[in-house]
Amino acid sequence: MLFSTINYIFIFLPLIFLFFLISKKFSNLSVIYLLFSSLFFYAFWDFKLLFLLLFSIIFNFYISRLMIGNSNLKNLLLYFGIGVNVFILIIFKYSNFIIENFNLLFDYNIGLIYLTFPLALSFYTIQQVAYLFDCYDEEIKDVKFTNYALFISFFPQLISGPIVLYRNVSEQIANLSKAEIDYKNVFLGILIFTIGLSKKVLIADSFEPSVQEGFASATTINYDFIESWLISILFTFQIYFDFSGYTDMAIGSALILNIILPINFLSPYKSTSIISFWQKWHITLSNFINQYCFNKIIYKYKLIGPINSKIIIIIIMTIAGFWHGPTWGYIIFGLIHGLAISVNYFWKETNIILNKFLGWFLTFLVICFAFVFFKSSSLEVALNISKGMLGFNGIDLPIIFKTILPNFLSNSLSFAELDLRSFNIKILIIFVISLIIVFCFKNTQSLYQNYKYKIWHIWLYSFLFFISILRLRGVEFIYFAF
Amino acid sequence: MNYKKKIFYFISLILLFFTTFTLLIIYTKSYDSLNLIDSGLYQKTHHGSLSDRVTKFYILKKNNSAKHYLLGASSAWTIDPEIIKKKTNEDAINLSLGGAKIHEIEKFISWIVKNKTGTKSVIINIEPYSFNNLQYSRLPIEIQDSIGDKLSTFFNWLVLKDTIKLLLIELKLIKPNIISNINNNKQKKYFDVGFRYYPEYFERKKNPLLKSQMVKSLSMNNVDFKRIKLDLKSISSLKRIQSICVKNNIKLILYFDPVSYRLLQANDYEYLYSELKIVKKIVNEIQPVYYFNNFNIINNDLSFMENSHHHYNYEAANLILDDLLDLETYQLMDFVNNENYNNVVDKIVNQINSKKLNALLNN
Q1: Across the interface, do A470 and B7 touch by the CB < 8 Å criterion?
Q2: How many domains does chain A have?
Q3: A261 in Cβ contact with A157 (< 8 Å)
Q4: Taking all residues of chain A, what is their mean pLDDT, rounded to a whole number?
């Protein structure tokens, strides 16, 4: 069940909330109730996949229990636990990528494996690996199985995050049955959910046809400079509104149930450096990379040093790119960001202060360029568009000018081939609105932290909700398949 | 004010919006396909209209004598139902839709079976795009069968737009489209049987230069076909269509639309490959089909196309219909069932000798 569907908005979420209120009247029932609701939510996609989720939860819980009570075998148990998690991820997500590249490299003909990809596998694997590390570091001591299972499977964050650490929610889950319902949270949860819904349905989904058309045609059309940047910028905005919209809906849904999830976005496109971008984009993934990959490797292997740390950043970001999916495009996406972060650190060491606007401009260019590799269905498509972005396919005037300019001029000028039928005046207006939202509006987090009620809020948000419902088209979230 | 009250007001306002909207829909009758057309909101044309589901449902609802129905994708817009009438002496209408999906065709057939009597045949044209699940345009509320589908069609952005426009027509703030309907008799005649009017075709017929320009443009432009994800629900939908027809004693003819040879060749015969995979599934699991992408004259001669590689013109449509109405002595198409499937693919492969298509024979 997608968050942006009638079933979720009008049936699942209200019923969950209603029974949650009832469950509060019985001691200790709230956790079990939310756990079963979350498992039902997951099983709604594919009942069979529930067994893998349950196995993963039980396996990691018992490994962590053994680790807590056995300091001699801690190391072994940690490696074993992480090994099994990564093995499951490789089998379900990366086996065909490995086989295809092996066949290509060594001219073999090993058959591909056709397995259904378990939804949310990448996300719940990361959460459990982080949990094992926390147990290893003795940050976690005594955890009830039901609390742990709810922490992993809690439906608002299960499918595409935000990636939650146990310490983010442990107290909230432990007090779930006892604490009174805070209706301010419920109200803000509804507002944040509405913001997320409108981001997804009114903005991100409006860009979808033009982005699809643009990337699909890149196999046959050599886009020029302007065309390729247009396509890339459109996707850059689409993914922001899609993913942050999803996260707002997740945070809003959880808040309705009085659970506060960590923030995931903090106006990332306003960043004036790529380091700052990763502190504001998919924050929970960045935190995971920083705490559980970068710091662990640096301190464990004593690799502290200006060059070593930058090499490790590049390697870790490349792996983080690969975490998104089994394609070379994702690997290159991570590599570009890893390189950019390293260059950014080198620059910082020079102590030369870059003009803020220039910093923002360069950061935004790198973001748009990297997203081309993220989105493209193949390397061929990505290279074709990136060639255009680098100016190798020349610069032509957009085709729209052909009809505007007088004949004698239009006959002598060169016009672009791109004729995105779906990119019309409506999309242009939505694009301008999204520019204003991205660069001039406060982010959802600041709404929550410093909320001051105004009477027109109810009118505005209820109207936004109403319009968003009318625009529901059931378009999947971009991060849905990760 | 406490937050419980704020939540209450928020929900009340949403209910107020929905109630107001519902009352406006009822007042303007924007749920009623007949009213949408008769009020002049939509033009009486099948030419590139996003509301073609509504217009096609309109003519279906109005016509009580049709015994034969043409359904499927927009390529069949040029098939003239009058030819069927001449052959069978019974009325026929063309209900083909832009980007028609199998599940939409199923809804039309279910409605026909429930609401019209004496249906004798249903001819469905298929293309690979019929099997994905992307929604191209909305279906009329009346044709939706489940309450969920009816509600989601009712509370929809497009209905809101129609409602506002109908209100504006009512308040005489905008003009309806009725005038343009009456002025063009040819367009009206075509409209009544669901037949698309292409004025460009008639201009090209008068002026051979225009025709050669179109052929030149089709022979030079970029052709791209991306492999589509086969939605298995569409296959189930086609199975249900077949069983509805068997149950109601309706003759069901399935045929695959001819496209230009350039589209067949695009991306290493990706179109042909995708289509033949679907053909294999249908002939194995449902029933035989008639196949027009065997490099016949329509595929090979770009002048049979109507400004695109997958829309054929009236002449091509007549040739297709000649074959489909005379299943004993057809000229262009191939009859494909699960026994001769390999032979048909073999014949096509021999013509093009493609490695990719050979794989279909070896699987």
Answers
A1: no
A2: 2
A3: yes
A4: 87
In this model, does residue B168 exceed pLDDT 60?
yes
The residue whose two tokens read 């568009």 is A385
Separation of alpha carbons B54 and B42, rounded Å: 9
pLDDT at A290: 84
Among candidates B156, B222, B224 on the partner chain, residue whose Cβ is nearest the Cβ of A470: B156
Residues A242 and A321 in one domain: yes
How far is A179 from chain B, CA to nearest CA, in Å?
17
Residue A1 lies in a domain: no
Helix and strand element counts for chain A (H, E): 25, 0
Do the domain assignments include residue A411?
Answer: yes
Residues A320 and A467 in one domain: yes
A352: which residues sit within 8 A by CB, 6+ positions away? none
- Indicate the residue among A161, A180, A199 that finishes a domain: A180
Name the pLDDT band for A244 (thresholds 50, 70, 90). very high
Tokens standing for residue B316: 């091509």
* Cβ contacts of B129 on chain A, cutoff 8 Å: none
Which of A163-177, A280-294, B174-188 is predicted least confidently?
A: B174-188
Of A217, A458, A472, the CB nearest to B9: A458
The residues near A245 (Cβ < 8 Å, ≥ 6 apart) are A195, A196, A197, A198, A199, A200, A201, A203, A204
Of A221 and A53, more confident? A53
**In a shared domain, residues A468 and A326:** yes
pLDDT band at A192 (very low <50, low <70, confident <90, very high): very high
Full residue range of the structural domain in which residue A140 is found: 25-180
Catalytic residues of A: 324
- Per DSSP, chain B holds a count of helices (H) and strands (E) of 17, 8
**How far lies A132's CA from each of A64, A135, A294, A454, in Å?**
6, 5, 16, 44
Does residue A436 share a domain with residue A461? yes
DSSP 8-state class, residue B258: P
ipTM at complex level? 0.84
Q: What pLDDT sits at residue B358?
A: 66
All residues of chain B having their beta carbon less than 8 Å from the beta carbon of residue A469 are 155
Q: Containing domain of residue B148, as a range? A: 3-362
Residues A261, A343 share a domain: yes
Cα–Cα separations (whole angstroms), residue A21 to A438, B4, B6, B173? 36, 13, 18, 50
Is A282 found in the same domain as A174?
Answer: no
State whether residue B222 sits within 8 Å of chain A by CB: yes
A481 shares contact with chain B (CB less than 8 Å): no
B14 contact A CB<8A: yes
CB < 8 Å to B10, chain A: 187, 190, 458, 461-462
Tell which of A137, A163, A180 closes a domain.
A180
Tell if the CB–CB gap between B6 and A453 is shorter than 8 Å: yes
Q: Are A310 and A346 in contact (CB under 8 A)?
A: yes
Reply yes or no on whether the pLDDT at B179 is more than 60: no
A128 in a structural domain = yes
Size of interface A-B (CB pairs under 8 A): 57
Taking an 8 Å cut-off on Cβ atoms, the answer to whether B223 and A220 are in contact is yes
Task: Note whether A454 and A359 are same-domain residues.
Answer: yes
| Average pLDDT rounded to a whole number, residues B255-267 | 90
A465 touches chain B (CB under 8 A): yes
| Model pLDDT, residue B182 | 46
Sheet containing B251-256, strands listed edge to edge, beginning at the edge strand earlier in sequence: B91-94, B66-72, B121-126, B251-256, B289-291, B334-336
Chain A interface includes B156 (CB < 8 A): yes
- Quote the number of domains for chain B: 1
Q: Do A465 and B6 touch (CB under 8 A)?
A: no
Residue A358 lies in a domain: yes
Across the interface, whether the CB atoms of A219 and B267 are under 8 A apart is answered: yes
Indicate the residue of A186, A466, A473 with minimum beta-carbon distance to B3: A186
Q: For A394-442, write each residue's pLDDT tens digit.
A: 777 666 566 666 666 666 666 665 555 556 778 888 989 999 998 888 8
Looking at the structure, do residues A262 and A385 belong to the same domain, yes or no?
Answer: yes
